[in-house]
Amino acid sequence: MLRVRFHGRGGHGVKTASRILGSAAFCTGLQVQDSPVYGAERRGAAIAAFTRIDKQVIQERGLVLDPDLILVADETLFTDPGAALLAGVEFASVVFINSARDRVLLATEYGIPCPVVTLDLSTLTTDVVGRGASFSATLGTAACALAGITDRSVVSQAVQKELESLHLTPELIAKNVNAASQVLDHLSAVSIRERPQGHTASPIHPPIHLLGPEGTPVIYAPGNSARRHTGSWRVFRPEIDLNACTRCGICFAECPDAAIHLNEKAFPVVDYDNCKGCLICETECPVHCISEQKEVRT
Amino acid sequence: MTTGLETGCALLTGNATAAWAARLADVDYVPAFPITPQTEIIESLAAWSSGGEIPARVVNLDSEHSMITAAGAAAATGCRAFTATSSQGLLYAMEALYTVAGWRVPFVLVNVSRGLAAPITLEPDHNDILAARDSGCIQIHAETCQEVLDSILMGYRIAEDPRVRLPVIVNMDGFYLSFTREPVALPDPARVRAFLPAFDPGAVAFRASRPIAQGVGALGGPLYTHFRHQAHLAARNALTVHEEVATAFELEFGRSYDVIERYQMDDAEYVLVMAGSFATKAKAAIHTLRARGRRVGLLRLRLIRPWPAEAIRRELAGRRAAAVIDQNISPGLGGILFQEVAATMISSQSRPGVMRSFVGGLGGKDISPGEFMHVVDVLENSGPDEPTEPELLYTEADWSQIHPLLVIAQTPDRHSNEEAAP
Amino acid sequence: MKVKREFFRNLKELPTEELLAPGSPMCAGCGGLITLRLVLKVLGPNVVVVNAAGCLTMLAAYPYSPLRASWLYTTMGSAPAGAQGVRDALDVLIARGRLPASEDLRVVVLAGDGSTLDIGLSSMSGAIHRGLDFHYICYDNEAFGNTGFQGSSSSPFGSRTATSPAGTTQHKKDLFALWLAHRPPYAATVSAADPVDLAEKVRRSMQFRGPKLFVGLATCPPGWGIDPAQGHHVGKLALDTGIWPLKEAVHGEVRHTYVPDHLKPVEDYLQTQARFHHLFSPQRHDDILATIQNEVIGYWNEVRHREFPQTLLGELSRADLR
Question: Which domain holds residue C117?
Fold first, then answer.
């Protein structure tokens, strides 16, 4: 069985990517399971999707905790512990990262023990499909290629079918099929290593009863959500040029997340630990002293 | 009017008793919604509240779903809340019942059992209350009006104990208790206060000085499992807490309760297992049967959640045969409590050689002495390999009563068992 | 034309205190979240928020809560009843001397439009009818946003939802009018796109005992199909096209707190959102667009007649759109 796990943010199209791989494998006569997992978080937050492929009926369900392939749509997720990109990486044969950076450097930087494959899907997708497009077609195709499904007509059909089900316009689908085809030019099948089989019984934790309301989900530390650090969701960061700022207070008032506060001189200060990068502040600044910068994290 | 406080005893219906129990428990808050046969309970409390006889605030809500939410929210704020419903009302509140049990807030809800629609009816059976058996609420089933009163007072002690912290439902049968007057000993309010001091919510209540978030989401299997299972452990604790509370109650008021009631059990070879007010009828039948030399006893289930497995196993061990008479029906399965009793006995080496399931008393249909005789006959004549298919207690007399009605309604006379014949 | 304000004249006067900490799991650019943040700023910290299932339910997901105030999640259909229980309990405990008045809280229901106008309608109606002393905040994103943007009875005519892919054929229920039929002391429509108007109304409402409505148009980037950065801009267009009137009613007396001198064409608003794209492409649906525009013009003409009979504000027509 081939177990594939996709990581991205809501809006990146990882669910559709997992389905493109699923559909392509299904077309070639294989057994397939694909599924996404949703948490409490919304668009911009880390999400994952899974595809299992086998010649036999698949006797697994749910999360893929022991992936053969891990595909990462957004490199910045490595700094988000909640995204758990490397969970079960010891089973993985390859980690694919959407990045223009050097793959050996990435492996060292993020402590990836297996080979890393990269391709700059962001640039490719933006160039061929357009700015702000999701990575579903390019990421799904990358997975197909790495999994050894390289027949262009099979992959194109899978992309076509999955994007049609999302009601994309024919022009947009054609652009995505084109982008997918270019991904096939750059990537090829990787060899999947054998892994040991068999499980031993798990140790069971004895139940512990907490008295009264302690046994319910009560939060005694209200306002503690700043510890989530939703700044990891951000793709573009707002930068305020304080020399041009007139202290009008609009960015402060309109930030949905209270991620801008005013300092003692009433200048706005961005809380980058938590700013999700919605960029309402940039749009609304009347003197245009807020600019967007592509987020780079190390 | 003689309240009975002077004499210590009064002639009260089950509904009036429930209202008196809430009054004696010095409840703070009564969210209400009318439904027959429960409505008299909240009417009494509303009259006392508006007359200034009790400090409790009585508020009419817009549905039982809202009513249970309001009761739970008030308890989550530190009030002692009381409310009552029945039948369709309990089912309408079902989502809220699970919710407030999940909040782990203490209050007492009286359910006046009534058969469920459709077809709509007014008289009792236990399908309503048993539909709530997985909600996390504690369930106490009363046989008499006195037991209604005592169970409500004990119910607050159990619900508010930090080891439990769950809502308690006290169940009484509609009409058979709710509208039936019988003598009830009303305890002295000062002694009730000694037995049941004011509710102390501790650190979990809404206060300006101490903001908290209650009832929040718990996403992910391990986290959800942890909290959900806590409710199970808390409910299991109610067995121990019930024992302690019963001891304190007996010391204060002289009446003693166990999680089950044993009637003529010492030498019983044949045991009837029942819950609720119809147990009284079983006791009368046992009296007759005993006079004929047949050694029959009754095991009455008082606590149904938590399930008193140990007491049931102890009481049924070594008997020749047991019959569970369920006043409920799970279509496609049969009696609900039979399944739970049978599962309890499965691991016992000395379980009764015969265990039979009977369904009777649906929608308030009588279980006559003759039907109890029939049940015991079946037990005596059954072997260990008899099927456990439930038998419906429905007499020739019952059929002759309703058959003319089918004729009046011009019901087409088609029998599936006849059609199936060649 | 704007009305005179008593408490907040400009943005600089908004309270700087934050009662909603950053780090919530809401979408980037959430219009419901900004509405709640602004309301809470004015209400202050002594608040318990009673929530109905919806997008904002996930604000408090164990072990995190962004609220520097109390929170109780109830069910989708009974948040107003939860508010009733909390309010009554606080009143009884204070009246019986078991709680000092200094521990009292303002009770606030937080519900989306689906909870408010569909599953929780009778619970809300009951609470208003009982005269419950509470604030009701409806963040109106005009659909069941949390479950993937299915149509609610607040979805506007012509809008596409997950359950009306060809466009909603019903007209939006009027929550403000529904409240007025219950004769509450205070009701208001608000928009995060006008924070000063919102703050002023919240502050004004605090002098009234009884049920107080705040329904805020909540721009929804994923549901409406807008870039998160455009949320505020789209919210302003809703005001300037007259689609979302800002008004309040004190003891039933209605006044509009922002009366645009000229209305922008509704198309300026509709075209910003993917949920209305089908009205323009592949072909224009002039009939639907005209219905939406005429409803808006008719509404504002009625407002002019009723509230400004003495002024020079004449009858609006399509020719007046700018």
Answer: 11-320
